Recover the amino acids of this structure.
């Protein structure tokens, strides 16, 4: 069952009404015949007067119930008649034009009925319309057939002397057992008129804006410092801006004429060829550009840039737009920029070569955001594969015994106004955990107004130097010790020897004192030998 | 007039030096007694014990610098502390094998040190010292 079936009005057919009218009479006849016949048959088995009384009682009951049934049926039919009248009134008095059409036949639908609003709309009476084809309403039959198939359509009709715009809606309906369609005709002419006026207003506004945009564009083009000119496919001038006109006049003595063919004879032959190529490319839909050198009125050479762009209309190229610009200053600036970039690159290369040659770790500490940028030396010296750290990262890798002194030294230097250089020696932890002795030298970098912006410095590996210095220091101590041995200890036994020799009695070798002297000489010589061995041993330690 | 024997004290850990010095003193003047100590501590202990007995205190001390326990410098410092409590004045000569000029300068900076002598000490030098000593009032 479709939605249209649900929307169908519940109208009782005429034959059903007639059947309901005769229903009480039929009930009375059937009831009386059944009672009399059944009682008669039963009287054959029971022969007494009681069966007659039973028949009379049954007939009275049937008679009373028949009357009641008749009364109820009448009431129902009366109510039904009232409902039908209300439906008809609702149909007839509805302000929306409606018409019932017979859609059973395959041809043009026939008008069955219409309401009063329909009469007003089409300016015809219902009597004039009933039985006629739907075209009598002024509607196109194909629009009506379309609405019967698709359920809704907008159509037009001529009514009340004017063209009306109608929104057609269709609903299936059963009229006296016949399949019919209720066609609702909404006159939306006024609404469409409002929409049309609104659209006209929008279009007008767009037109005004477009004109304003054109005006702005014209002003933009005329005030542009660049020369702008447009050519058609025959190289005739079709438009130009004020700057082009002035440049043209300064060369030719007159203003350019619309329709005039462009004169390229002022250019060098090689430049003419490039001009021709650019124009041809643009006519083929490809934008192109080139530069050429010209001498201006002050005999200065200028770099002029030409840009050709295709002008398209309806998907075909109808001309070429040409933008001519003096790019001399840009090229000079570009050249200066390239020179600067080249020098900067060379400087960076020198910096990298020097930093590689010195094996130093170069650091650049920006004070404001506390970031330290490192060069490759941080990897070469300490094994850290990074380029940026914080100051805390650096402090954490200072040797604990050096940390306080170095950080305090750095703080004092940073806060000082006069001292531009900083120097410190400390131990710094490598990525593998070992510590290296390093020499750190820093320099302040200030802005033009004297504000401290960056601290830049380099860290040099002095581990080997420090080790060698420690070795030399130890050797110095040993040398001092040897000198001390030489000065004190060797002179002790030597002095003893000299003293004993002095005491020896050469004049009397038999003097008993000489025997004691000789014993002590032997001891002194032995002591001297011990000292000499110590010196030799210390000397060997020095070599090690 | 009562004759009082003079005495000389050798403070040195070198037994050969002790022997040669004692022999030279005997050769020069056999009336001079020679006391020998192996380090400064022994000598200081002796002086301290006899501080009030002038007959037992030496008249001259030949003091070495490099010695165990208490070296010559420590002895000089300790001697300065007790000098005023001694019953007689004692002349000190620092005698060392060191030829370091700094040792000589330092030794002479002590008020109790008469002079700095380099080893070896000869008989003639002993004689000179004793003759200077003899001239001193005794």
């Amino acid at each position: 069952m479709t939605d249209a079936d649900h929307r169908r009005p519940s109208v009782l057919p005429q034959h059903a009404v007639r059947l309901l009218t005769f229903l009480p009479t039929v009930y009375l006849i059937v009831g009386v015949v059944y009672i009399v016949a059944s009682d008669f048959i039963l009287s054959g088995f029971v022969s007494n007067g009681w069966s007659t009384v039973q028949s009379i009682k049954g007939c009275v009951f049937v008679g009373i119930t028949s009357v009641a049934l008749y009364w109820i049926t009448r009431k129902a039919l009366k109510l039904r008649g009232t409902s039908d009248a209300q439906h008809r009134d609702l149909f007839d008095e509805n302000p929306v034009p409606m018409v019932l059409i017979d859609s059973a036949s395959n041809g043009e639908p026939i008008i069955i009925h219409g309401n009063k609003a329909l009469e007003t709309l089409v300016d015809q009476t219902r009597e004039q319309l009933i039985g006629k084809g739907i075209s009598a309403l002024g509607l196109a039959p194909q629009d009506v057939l379309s609405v019967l198939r698709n359920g809704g359509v907008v159509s037009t009709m001529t009514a009340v002397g004017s063209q009306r715009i109608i929104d057609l809606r269709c609903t299936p309906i059963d009229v006296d057992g016949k399949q019919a369609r209720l066609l609702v005709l909404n006159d939306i002419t006024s609404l469409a008129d409002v929409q049309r006026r609104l659209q006209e207003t929008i279009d007008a506004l767009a037109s005004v804006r477009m004109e304003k945009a054109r005006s702005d564009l014209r002003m933009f083009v005329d005030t542009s410092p660049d020369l702008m000119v447009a050519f058609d496919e025959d190289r005739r001038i079709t438009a130009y801006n004020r700057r082009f006109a002035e440049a043209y006049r300064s060369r030719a003595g007159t203003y350019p004429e619309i329709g005039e063919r462009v004169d390229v004879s002022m250019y060098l032959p090689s430049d003419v060829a490039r001009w021709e190529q650019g124009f041809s490319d643009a006519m083929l839909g490809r934008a192109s550009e080139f530069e050429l050198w010209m001498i201006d009125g002050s005999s200065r050479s200028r770099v002029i840039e030409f840009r050709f762009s295709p002008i398209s209309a309806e998907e075909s190229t109808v001309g070429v737009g040409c933008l001519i610009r003096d790019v001399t200053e840009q090229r000079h600036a570009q050249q200066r920029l390239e020179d600067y970039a080249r020098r900067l690159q060379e400087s960076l290369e020198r910096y990298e070569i020097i930093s590689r040659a010195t094996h130093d770790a170069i650091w650049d500490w920006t004070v404001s955001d506390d970031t330290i940028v490192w060069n490759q030396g941080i990897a070469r010296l300490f094994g850290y594969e990074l380029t940026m750290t914080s100051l805390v990262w650096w402090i954490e890798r200072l040797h604990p015994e050096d940390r306080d002194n170095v950080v305090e030294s750095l703080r004092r230097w940073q806060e000082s106004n006069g001292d531009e250089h900083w120097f410190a020696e400390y131990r710094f932890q490598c990525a593998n955990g070992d510590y290296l002795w390093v020499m750190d030298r820093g320099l302040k970098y200030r802005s033009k107004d004297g504000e401290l912006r960056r601290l830049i410095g380099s860290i040099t590996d002095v581990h080997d130097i420090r080790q060698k210095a420690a070795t030399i220091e130890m050797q110095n101590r040993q040398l001092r010790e040897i000198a001390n041995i030489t000065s004190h200890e060797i002179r002790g036994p030597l002095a003893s020897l000299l003293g004993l020799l002095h005491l020896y009695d050469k004049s009397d070798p038999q003097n008993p004192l000489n025997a004691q002297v000789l014993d002590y000489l032997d001891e002194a010589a032995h002591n001297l030998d011990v000292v000499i061995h110590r010196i030799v041993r210390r000397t060997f330690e020095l070599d090690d | 007039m009562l004759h009082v024997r003079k005495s000389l004290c050798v403070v040195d850990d070198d037994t050969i030096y002790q022997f040669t010095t004692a022999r030279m003193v005997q050769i020069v003047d056999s009336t001079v007694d020679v006391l020998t100590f192996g380090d400064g501590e022994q000598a200081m202990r002796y002086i301290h014990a006899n501080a009030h007995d002038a007959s037992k205190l030496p008249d001259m001390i030949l003091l070495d610098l490099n010695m165990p326990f208490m070296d010559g410098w420590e002895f000089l410092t300790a001697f300065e502390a007790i000098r005023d409590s001694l019953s007689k004045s004692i002349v000190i000569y620092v005698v060392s094998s060191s030829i370091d000029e700094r040792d000589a300068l330092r030794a002479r900076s002590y008020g109790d040190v008469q002079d700095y002598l380099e080893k070896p000490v000869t008989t003639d030098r002993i004689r000179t010292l004793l003759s200077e000593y003899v001239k001193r009032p005794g």
About this structure: Residues 50-93 of chain A form the longest helix (44 residues). Chain A has a mean pLDDT of 84.
